[in-house]
Amino acid sequence: MRTGPSRKTPTLGHWLAGLCLFMTAWLHGVAVQAADILLTGAEESPGVQAFVQALSELRPTDNVRFQPLASLPAPGKLPASLRLILLDLPSLDWRLQDSQGPSTLVLRISRLQARQRFADAQPARLSLLWSDPPLSRQLQLIRRILPQARRVGVLFDEHGEFLIDELRAAARPLNLEIVSQRWDNIHDSRPLQAVLKGSDVLLGLDDPDLYNSQTAKNLLLSSYSRQVALIGPNIAFVRAGSLASTYSDQSDWLAILDHLLDQPTSAWPRTLYPARFKVSSNAQVARSLGIEPLNEASVASALAEGERRP
Amino acid sequence: MFSGPPPPRSPLLLALLFSPLVLADDLFVDSQTLPQVLTATRLKQTPAEVPGSMTVLDSELISASGARDISELLRLVPGMMVGSINGNQPAVNYHGTNASEARRMQVLIDGRSVYRAGLATVDWSDIPVAMEDIDRIEVFRGPNTVSYGANALMAVINIITRHPADSHGTRLKITRGQRGINDFYASQGTGWDGGDLRLSLSGQEDDGFDSNRNGADYRDGRRLNRLSLAVSHDLNEGQSLDWQLNAKDGSNQRPYTYRPVFSGITDAGNNSDVVAKDYAGSVRWNLDINPEHSLYVQGSAQHWDRQQVWRACDAEVSFSPELAQLWQLNPNYTERLARNINQFTGPGAAPGTPQEMALANQVLEQWRNGASQTLCGDIDQSARESRYDLELQDTLSLSDSLRLVSGLNYRYDRADSETYFNGTLDDTTWRAFGQLEWRATEHWLLQGGAMFEDTQLIGSSLTPRFAVNYLINPRHGLRAVYSEAIRSPDMFENNVNWSYQVSNLRPSAYGQSSARYFVKTRGPGDLDQEHMRSRELGYNGYFAELGLAVDVKLFYDEITGMISEPLRNNQYIASNANSSRFRGSETQLDWRLSSADRLRLTYAFVDAEASNPLDQQFTSRNSGSAGWLRNWGHGWNSALFYYGDNALNGYRFERVDTRIAKRIAIGKAQLQLAGVLQQRLDHQPNTFVDNNYDERRVMYFSAELEF
Fold first, then answer.
1. Before B464, cis peptide (omega within 30)?
2. Of A203, A273, A260, A300, which is closest to residue A58 (Cα–Cα)?
3. Which residue, A275, B244, B367, B368, has fewest beta-carbon neighbours within 10 Å?
């Protein structure tokens, strides 16, 4: 009997409760839809601006912004719901001050740099997105463009040593032999001579201690004079005279980020090599080494196809 | 796999194509700014694109051969005729011509010609470069004056030493063996920010051949020391400076070959050894204006010093002014008189012009009055030659398919010899050259060029060169080449003023302790250049899957206006009257059978025809080499080579060389022990009848420490 009138005439309380429910649901929906994405780095270069702009255009519903590192509080003081994207190593060092803090995507970091910073103990809440091309992909590139090459020379220093075993493991199924040579002093070219002597191709590890503007000339001229092609380590070297390399550019990384940002942070990988990539080659060098001109796009898609169906 | 609109690619692609600077906006691509190192001007042609035939002797081959001399290495080049005048005078010629005067090839060390300025020979044994300092030898088989200047008549041998940046550390090596072999090498290389250097010292000693045609000891050993310094500086991103200093000092034994003209002379000297010193310095400034344009300026100075003073004996009458006067009038008449003087002492002078007979009778009178006595004196056959050379070469990549190489060259040569030139003689040469390389399509490559040369003593000439390469693909090419080349006669051939001023005469001649020998020879002074026309068809291919490189060539070469008279001081009458023709085929095959085995074969068939029979001497109709190099693992390496010439100056040559080497790591250092065994398969002298070894086999061992 008591239920009748209440069913017919909802009270103000009912209205308020309904409103609250609606508001909560709406607010929750907004929280899921519009993430707060903060990018940071030591400075806001034109390249950074262009990237932030492109990311915000790609995710119009999110709040994408850049804030220079200097203006940020300690990472632990940032809201936990924030999605943090680090664009350089100073920002990573800042982020490492605090084990707490928001989930973080670390861009533009290489395997070597990560190793130097935290050895095997990768801190929690950090997803490392590798900037250096994966070794297996570079080996596949060698297989594809220099099918007769068997002995792959690799120079490394103390920082890159940990990659050699991984490289060997990646080379084995491809029937490639890794000829590794330690190079601790770039002013002493004997290790370079030694590795060139025993290799059909030289694979460059993305180690700025070994592959830099100071060593580029000697590396490229010495290998070229022995008709040994250099593969990698990055696109800058391809322009300087390396035969080819795989690489991921801004458009690749935007697509990868877009995918990651669609997912809850709990689903973010600990480390990730970009599945989207391109191939760059130096046509003049290829011609001079007697190699047919590469169709970069088709080599890249063939490599990607191979990665999808190993 | 990813949602979202595809990223706009085309602007990026355009940016990649047209301006790398635009990429500065891509955060992920342009983290490093690097200079373009392998630019269009630095990159070389593939073997299939080369407008001619090329043989490259790489460092692996050089060390595996066990060769102690550059000339021995050239046995690995098809068509190269390698022989010996004696133990310290190798003779090398491509396809042939005269055995004792191999002077139709250009020989360069790091771009500097070592072809002697005055006497137009290459003293292979005196080149101030140690084998251990050589990185590779590129042999252009065919004329190429457009790229290498006059004298690149039959072939060009380009010896490239190891770059200082590639020779860091210490190397010590000694070699000991039979036949008096005793060599050493020591080098130290180091690098610093923006520079590298290598300093090396080396020495070589051996006894040469053992016995002459009579079985007597043959005096042709050698002993030499060398010093070389190579430095390279990077001045800034686009400029570098390379400089070198080289010196060689040594003595080359020569047998006493003087035969007295007059009868009854039994005294003799015992040698005519040469002290040979070579000095060279060069500086090269490289400038990369941009990736499409680079140039270099190279200046070099060289000095060849050959001191050859030896004691000779003949009759006093050799210094008779009347006999010398008679020689000027009629050398044949004079030679007949001198060689048979005892026949004329009774009857008097042979019939001739009244003036000749009067002089001859005066000579006979002197002979009867005691001028038949033996005199011995010092003959100074020394020569000092200098060369200063300045070259500018510009490489311009006009587009992806068009490249222009052009340049200017100035050279000053001076020769100083009392005996050969009665003092000093000099010459200046100007050259301008250009070569255009046009990649008409993916398959057709057209290359053409010309060189203009003007020398003060000889005059000017223009030589063209054209080549068409059809590239089946980048690794396989067919070629057709037409080229013309010239060789300027050297100062000796054209301007020799040859006479001997003999000093320290004992007893004195006509009261003088220094007097002039009666024979005097003058060069014609109006010689023209030799001309070569060469036609070539060839194929070059690399089968990557097999590791097999093949080159085949057919050739037809003609030399006209050829100066083929031998350089002798009695009756040297040089002229451009001769000609020769060479035709045949050459094959070279380099096969890396596996990562451990390398097989190399060369074969040349050369058919020579010459108006002067001397120019046919130095052509072996069939010649070739075969080599097998193997890496056995655990530091063991072996090499086996066969070299054969069916007839070089009439003598067969067949030899098998074996080298076995073991590399041992001692801490951070590497020790390499090697043994070489050379076994002759024939029983013939080597090129000349006096070049004989007692044993057909020789062994030598070396130990090399690297750290």
1. no
2. A260
3. B368
A251:B7 CB<8 A? yes
Cis peptide, bond prior to residue A233, ω within 30 of zero: yes
pLDDT at B608: 95
Q: What is the pLDDT of residues B394-407, one digit of tens each?
A: 999 999 899 999 99
Helix axes B331-339 and B354-366, enclosed angle (nearest 10): 30
CA distance A198 to chain B (A): 9
- Kindly determine whether residue A217 and residue B47, on different chains, have CB atoms separated by under 8 Å: no
B2 contacts A276? CB cut-off 8 A: yes
Which H/E stretch holds residue A46?
helix A46-58
Contacts of B37 (CB under 8 A, 6+ apart): A216, A217, A220, A221, A240, A241
> Inter-chain contact A288–B38, Cβ cutoff 8 Å?
yes
Q: What is the pLDDT of residue A4?
A: 41
**Residues B24, B31: Cα–Cα separation, whole Å:** 8
* Residue of chain A nearest B238, judged by CA positions: A217
Contact A249 B166 (CB under 8 A): no
Phi/psi region, residue B479 (left: phi>0; alpha: psi -120 to 50; beta: rest), is beta
Considering only residues A199 and B522, tell me which one the structure prediction assigns the higher pLDDT.
A199
pLDDT value at residue B145 = 82
Cα–Cα distance between B226 and B232 in angstroms, integer?
Answer: 20
Complex prediction ipTM: 0.84
Residue B568 pLDDT:
66
How much of chain B exceeds pLDDT 70, in percent? 95
pLDDT value at residue B491: 86
* Cα angle B581-B582-B586, degrees, rounded to a multiple of 5: 165
Residues of B in contact with A252 (CB under 8 A): 7, 28
Among the residue ranges A77-86, B197-206, B208-217, B572-581, the one predicted with the least confidence is B572-581
pTM assigned to the model: 0.88
| Tokens found for residue A298 | 């088709």
Nearest beta carbon to residue B547 from set A58, A148, A188: A148
Which of B34, B39, B43 is opposite residue A237, by nearest beta carbon?
B34
Task: Specify the higher pLDDT residue, A31 or B20.
Answer: A31
B410 neighbors B349 (Cβ within 8 angstroms): no
Once rounded to an integer, what is the mean pLDDT over residues B366-377? Answer: 93
Give the residue on A whose Cα is nearest the Cα of B10.
Answer: A251
Nearest chain A residue (CA) to B232: A218
Q: Which residues pair with A83 in a beta bridge?
A: A37
- Residue B452's beta-bridge partner residues? B432, B462
- Residues from chain B contacting residue A225 (CB–CB below 8 Å): 135, 163
Nearest to A151 among B43, B166, B595 (CB): B595
Measured between alpha carbons, how far is B160 from A36 in angstroms, rounded to an integer? Answer: 64
End-to-end CA distance of chain A: 72
